[in-house]
Amino acid sequence: MSQEILLLTQNVLDWVVMICFIGISISLTLLVYRILVGPTNADRAVALDVIGINLMAVAAFVSISLVTTQLNDAILLIAILSFLGTVAIAKYLEKGVIIDRDMD
């Protein structure tokens, strides 16, 4: 009986991960469209930030489907790089430059 429950749980988990992959791929397709067509630069910045979140989700679902914890470091790295990219884009949109060089 417990073997059947374990098999059922594995099948349900596989289906849920597959449905999540499909949802994330649709989301990534729409985000790429928003980056290319976005009416403002702020829309493009938000789309890039959400792409970083989606990449973290993809790495998490791959980690779940492979039953490993080895991708946790990759997820954290993607999060840090996504945050730094968002800060750089926000600074560029606000001031027009990313690195201020005061030559006083």
Provide mean pLDDT, rounded: 90
> What gross morphology would you assign?
elongated
Sheet having the most strands? none
Strand content: under 5%
Topology, number of strands = 0
Strand/helix succession: HHH
Low-confidence stretches: none
Kindly name the structural category.
mainly alpha
Radius of gyration: 19 Å
Number of helices: 3
Approximate helicity band: over 70%
Question: What is the straight-line distance between the termini?
Answer: 77 Å
Topology, element by element:
Blueprint: H1 2-37, H2 41-66, H3 72-95
What would you note in describing this structure?
The protein is an all-alpha fold and 104 residues long. 83% of the residues lie in helices and 0% in strands. The chain has helices at 2-37, 41-66, 72-95.
What's this model, at a glance?
This protein has 104 residues and is an all-alpha fold. Helix content is 83%, strand content 0%.
